[in-house]
């Protein structure tokens, strides 16, 4: 082996692998973290610019499909925002640790590494938030309407009550 990894059991990730502080660590930093984040950022910006450009040039013919494309773009934008909002600080921290100072953002780096584990938990909620039809169906299931009738307790004569208006629980 090129190095020996020392484990620190009192830290969040038990210490980093020793190869990260060699040339292979820099290659790993570029290929596995920086390249995917940069690719997603660049292609999302290009796609967003293309959609805006097409919307401005093809105003009349494609107006009926713009609503569908807008929903797809909103979903893609929200998913990529969650991914990039968590990974960009990690990439900046790793660059700072490798090229500036090994203690660069040391206190915050543990938080950034922990947030990476939250991405798979957030993505289903983000997808649901970008689908208004699903949100309406959930609201109907959760907030079922029930009819409420109010009857006076001190009345001697009983008459049929008019039909009550449904009242929502939400």
UniProtKB/TrEMBL annotation:
The keyword Transmembrane helix applies. The chain crosses the membrane at residues 29-53, 74-92, 112-131. It comes from the Eukaryota. The lineage of its organism: Eukaryota, Metazoa, Spiralia, Gnathifera, Rotifera. It comes from Adineta ricciae. SUPFAM superfamilies: Family A G protein-coupled receptor-like. Keywords: Membrane, Transmembrane, Transmembrane helix. This is G-protein coupled receptors family 1 profile domain-containing protein.
